[in-house]
Design goal:
2 copies of one chain form a homodimer. Chain A is an alpha/beta fold. Helices cover 42% and strands 16% of the residues of chain A.
Chain lengths: 457, 457
Amino acid sequence: MSTKNIPYKIYLEEDEMPKAWYNVRADMVNKPAPLLNPQTLKPATLEELSQVFCEELAKQELDDTTAYIPIPQEILDFYKMYRPAPLVRAYCLEKKLGTPAKIYYKFEGNNTSGSHKLNSAIAQAYYAKKQGLKGVTTETGAGQWGTALSMACAYLDLECKVYMVKVSYEQKPFRREVMRTYGASVTPSPSMETEVGRKINAEFPGTNGSLGCAISEAVEAASKDENYRYVLGSVMNQVLLHQSIIGLETKAALEKYDIKPDIIIGCAGGGSNLGGLISPFVGQKLRGEADMRIIAVEPASCPSLTRGSYVYDFCDTGKVCPLQKMYTLGSGFMPASSHAGGLRYHGMSSVVSQLYHDGLMEAVSVEQTSVFAAATEFAKVEGILPAPESSHAIRVAIDEAMKCKETGEEKVIVFGLTGTGYFDMYAYQRFNDGQMGDYIPTDEEIAASLAKTPVVE
Amino acid sequence: MSTKNIPYKIYLEEDEMPKAWYNVRADMVNKPAPLLNPQTLKPATLEELSQVFCEELAKQELDDTTAYIPIPQEILDFYKMYRPAPLVRAYCLEKKLGTPAKIYYKFEGNNTSGSHKLNSAIAQAYYAKKQGLKGVTTETGAGQWGTALSMACAYLDLECKVYMVKVSYEQKPFRREVMRTYGASVTPSPSMETEVGRKINAEFPGTNGSLGCAISEAVEAASKDENYRYVLGSVMNQVLLHQSIIGLETKAALEKYDIKPDIIIGCAGGGSNLGGLISPFVGQKLRGEADMRIIAVEPASCPSLTRGSYVYDFCDTGKVCPLQKMYTLGSGFMPASSHAGGLRYHGMSSVVSQLYHDGLMEAVSVEQTSVFAAATEFAKVEGILPAPESSHAIRVAIDEAMKCKETGEEKVIVFGLTGTGYFDMYAYQRFNDGQMGDYIPTDEEIAASLAKTPVVE
């Protein structure tokens, strides 16, 4: 196919933007296993989930039959503020690599949260507002999710309470300040505001905190005020549903120019971006309408898909959230302090896990120094300084494009560029100074962590 | 006019993008006064300017008769990577303000340099490359210009040497790191690498540096290598010419929807963004084709247009660059350390100065706390966290929209949103903590500074 008329950036028109989210579970033959109540270890009911999540979100969490769920008008209006995200033809990267491959990336970084997280933040905040709640609580590590939620809450005039892992709170003061600018209250975790926080502070004086602790604090804070609910930025089915906007726009943009993807690549932490990007394409595969390779890229330091087990496990270290059947390294797994904080998660979305288990997609792990090398190469020719997380996808996109150079194949490679790295310059500095290392857990470390994982038949 | 069909964001199609820059000087009845050679105080010749700038850029600097100068294909290709910039209808801001005004902003922040500076950086780097040069030198204060130039040079495989004011180098390590990631060498100024740097270090041990000193170092470094030239990001005619892409796109986007602007607003430091935004509209005014108010917004701490004198002055503190006739506070003026580093310039583009002198535009100054209040209000409803510089324009756009609320007028207000504030979070922190002050120079301070300004008839 001639590429003569394909612009550098494909923007959908406003009236071409998706009006409904796509729920891939509806088309899956093997549905993801149900969530389990952490007390009873029985499938969680709508009623039980509604104590943690907003009712509408709990419904979305459990709905595995409705293929298309209409996006409320208020959310569509918010999406119009920063969407459609462009599908960019990486002409400059192709030229630099000298590859016959056609490379495209869906760029989700053109908003102040700096990532795709805003797509679900606005949805979750909207349903909280609609339910008449006063506010929401959440945790944040690297800070992208907390920023996105702060923005969504500011727009809807909803209170937003973020528990930020203490070490991030101190080392990423600018992320914290963006959230404060959007009116969120940001508390370093563990704090003295919650029981669990006080307990941890007493037990481990001077601790840096952890995501597990911050989750527990956020859940406790929400549980103590009936006008609050807890919200979260990845892993859950509802999040993948909202993030399907990424894949739907990508698919529409490709179809507008009659482009058929051969390979789709996304980075994978909890699976929110990857699941959102691939959902509509997986739907095509499931319905036998099209076929393509789908590749999840995870960090070698935290390889849940490539080296984890497919079992029931807790989503959080504090063990207060429902259990999910997923590829996991064990909820107590402590990944090395990599610079892609958004990918340091022990488990994986149950939808992505099931798709991987069923052979509908592949997975590969990459080391961070090779990821930053790809990030820098990309930045120099495509202009955008990518987030460390997104750069995992860049690494594999470049690798696949170089294979095409060897074989001469003109494959169409599409990858998700989830965000920008403007708040990750410390990591780039380590790389620029040659001080970045790689860490790969041993089989023994993973086995020891998994030994503590609940086994549920 | 009905606004029903106007989308949130107007993107030009790739083939609607401008193919030539617009040189407003060609339509000006009163041309800007010529540059003066700092040694002879006579009009600078092409030959003299070519010792400092690339030949093609020196020609552009002096050309006040050619209305349209074609943009080379290589630059058009680079522009396609991050342009067209969207013209955004601020529906959410309008709703929040309850104003009948229609507010639009041209958003230049969707690229990694975070501002409009890239528009001229790529042009200057291109002509340097075309002339067969090995590299360019420049100075940077806040860091946006240095970042933009680093990106352009990385793309063209040109060396880039940035002298960064020492206090910024230390306080904005992440800006510095972005430049390094793009392969630039970044030296804190004053350094021990240049004569002028060594001299200043000897004279003022432990000095924080200044823009004036960094310029002198960059000029000296370029002058010592015939394969290098010095480039700069604002004030000069050539820069305004390149930045006319902003105004041309804005005008094309407005015309696409038959929108006629009543007021155009831009922040003004050296004048690069403002001059670029307004040029095509001023052209319409000069040719009698249309009329509208044009407002330059400057910081109350550095009010060159509103409180300076229209005289010949040096563009740099080191007094090595040509003199310009412009509104100036005196080249030795030391503005208070405001948080809008990009607007802390003692003078103003000679084009903008002449237009202001001829009554073709207005100017207003605003205090920084009111600017940050506007920035925060804007961020919460429009999603984008703006740069402090850009927020000066937001302040006045909101003020004008509120006047419309009083009068009921449905004016069309267009302002330039030059960039994002992701590297300015320290300033937001000061504001969020209620620790930001305002500073307005006294008449005596300005008079004392101006007393040292050269007077050339």
